[in-house]
Structures are given as structure tokens and as C-alpha cells.
Amino acid sequence: MVRKHNLPITGVNSDGASVTVGEVGLGHLTQLAGWGTFTDAAGKALQAHSLSLPSDYRTPARNGATTVWRIAPDRVLVRSSTPLGVQGTDELVTLDLSDARTCMTVAGDGAAGLLSRVIALDFSEKAFPAGTFVQTSLHHVGVLIERQDRDRFLVLLPTTWARSLTDLIVTHLSIAAGHQAEPVTDSRSAP
């Protein structure tokens, strides 16, 4: 969904470390939400798909290519390659967010350094180890970032902000000759 830049784009951050910014297919993204009985209802619904409810808000649960992020006491996001197929009930509400999010990757030796320049967060391996995630903001827009391994991050962006947020990240790279990272111009600006 990010169309301004021909992704992937490889460049270097301000420390000279290599970074590649790309987009990957999201697949299906389902939000499960509930109320007082959420833990039981969501646990049963996820268990039917051989998944578990994460116990905290930093560590995702996985089964193969399916990931479950607990994003609030009464809410989880499930990324899967096929529709989850969980039906809403009086105790559990389901919402398909597949078209509402874009999935971007930031990878390479300089990925953590680049992200630390655009997000006020400690991206060191000690503070943010591989296999954990955070919810934070990128230029005042809520995003979910998962550190998949030492030098690879998955970033879920709202689709409506994907172009401008990708532009923000890409403009912090020094791009190899032949590729330009031009800022998005606001058509409302005076000439």
C-alpha cells in the first residue's frame, strides 16, 4: 500500500550502517475484544486454532505463521495467513483489520539506529530484545513494532498513514545513487 517509494529501499543511517525498508504482505489481521470475561472467551477461541492468549503486553504468542499480540487487557491482534474464522459472541467481538494496517520491515545493521531517530524508544537489544513487541507512536500515529531478530523489525502502520510514515523513515536514510528519498509535499502549502 506504500506507493510513493519503490520499496524495498536500501540506504545507510546517520551512523553509516546499512538499512533496508520494505513492505511485506500482512495477510489477515483480526482483532478480538471483550469485557469482563475476555480472558476466558478469547482463550477458548484461540485454543480452537491451536493458539494461546499472551500473558503480557510485550511477548507475542505464535503457532507457525500466526502471531497473537495482546495489546490491552481486553484486546488482542491476530496476524494469520488465512482468515481466523472466530465468530463474534456476546462475550467476544471480532473485527477484521486486514485493510486497515500495512506491514513494513526495517532490517539491517542500522535498523535499530534508524528507528531510534524517529521514535522516542530505546531500541537496544537489552531494552527491546528479539521476540518482543511494543506499541508506540511514530510521528504521533500509533504503531506496533516487533523485533523479529537482532537486525529485523516488523512495523504495523495504519494504512491511511503508511505513505507519510514510510516517507518519514526513508528520508532519514542516505540512499545509494539512482534512488531518491523525496519528502511528501503538502498540496495545501503556499508556493
TrEMBL record:
Name of this protein: Sarcosine oxidase, gamma subunit family
Domain of life the protein comes from: Bacteria
Organism: Xaviernesmea oryzae
Alphabetical list of Gene3D superfamilies matching this protein: Heterotetrameric sarcosine oxidase, Probable tRNA modification gtpase trme, domain 1
